[in-house]
Write a structure and sequence with these properties.
By secondary structure, the chain is α/β, with parallel strands linked by helices. The protein has helices at residues 15-24, 39-51, 106-119, 147-155, 164-169, 184-193; strands at 2-7, 29-36, 55-61, 64-70, 92-96, 127-132, 159-163, 180-182, 196-200. The chain is built from six helices and nine strands, in the order βαβαβββαβαβαβαβ. The N and C termini lie far apart (46 Å).
Amino acid sequence: MAEEQLDCRGLACPNPVLKTKQLVDRGDVVQLIVLVDNEAAKENVSRFLARSGYQVHSEEQENVFAVIGSRSNETACEVFMPEAGHQQEQKILVLVGADRLGRGDDELGAKLMVNFLGTLKEMGPSLWRLVLLNSGVKLAVEGSAVLPQLQELEKDGISILVCGTCLNHFELLEQKRVGETTNMLDIVTSLQLADRVISIT
């Protein structure tokens, strides 16, 4: 069984997770150290390793994070896939790429987004996952007008994925208050598994 170190500093999302997955998929890596240079990459790699059967911790030194994953030889290595849910129910994914709904008047657009997210629960059990990216991640941070609606959806079991690269871009990673910081690999996988995608941009 192997021990590996992977230097992913300077790599854009989702490359740190993709490179980590390549090693994990070999099936023989019992200890893996992944070096990254931002908080979002640290969270994404840590979550991926944990879902792949590794015990994970991280260390920071001079703005470099070392994500350390280890597992025993007997531990099965299982790559994370989002839960399929109930087969009889349609899985609807709502992709939100903006913090306002529609174009023309920003104030109106912000109010419409509040109304839209507050009404999403009317989809019932078919609503499976909400993905926030680009300026849509601003909806998930402290002070957002729709934060209570998003927190209610999450409490009701709706999965909310928030793009880590986007949070970093807007310098909002520390202000996120709902959802799971994610990467493009998880987003693409979610799009593939969804029965229907509704895009709001």
